[in-house]
Amino acid sequence: MSQFEVYLLLFTDVLTANLAFNTSSEIVLDTMNLFGNYHKQLMLSVALIAYAFSIGINYILGVACYKILTPAKEEQNQLNTKINSIKNSKLLAVIIAISFLPFFGKFIVLFSGFCRIKFKTVLIISILTKLVYYSFLIFSI
């Protein structure tokens, strides 16, 4: 298997592992890290790019869920007030920062799309926290 194929496998694994309705883990990243024969900065870069794509997909799924599950007109005002209270919460950045967690993080991004939180905010906070997570994971050995 060539180096290009290995990094493409890493990209695919990280992308699919971080989709909202997938329960798998990032096994290729762990395996590459275990063997240690790979360029760590390149591993980090490929994993972060794949994670950014998965954030976009999960966010779009959240927006689609909102559009599909939007209640009738009477209940929509009540839902919008709840969503606005979430958007204006002081702990919003902390909640989005928890998205680095391997299993629950993907649902936080999906919920952010459902609540229509600014995509730029979700993307920046999620990528920064995942960067720290991957840095500890990759460079700790």
Write structural notes for this entry.
The protein is an all-alpha fold. It is 75% helix and 0% strand. The longest helix is centred in the middle third of the chain and has 30 residues, at 40-69. The two termini are 24 Å apart. 26% of the residues are buried.
What percentage of the residues does DSSP assign to strands (E)? Answer: under 5%
Structural class: mainly alpha
Tell me the helix content.
Answer: over 70%
What is the global morphology?
Answer: elongated
Mean model confidence by pLDDT: 87
The major β-sheet equals:
none
Number of strands: 0
Instruction: Give the ordered list of helices and strands.
Output: HHHHHHH
The number of helical elements comes to: 7
Distance between the termini: 24 Å
Q: What Rg, in angstroms, do the CA atoms define?
A: 17 Å
Give the low-confidence spans: none
Output the keywords:
141 residues; mainly alpha
Furnish the topology, listing elements before pairings.
Elements: H1 3-17, H2 27-35, H3 40-69, H4 73-87, H5 92-97, H6 105-114, H7 119-139
TL;DR?
The protein is built from seven helices and no strands. By secondary structure, the protein is mainly α. The protein is elongated and about 55 Å long.
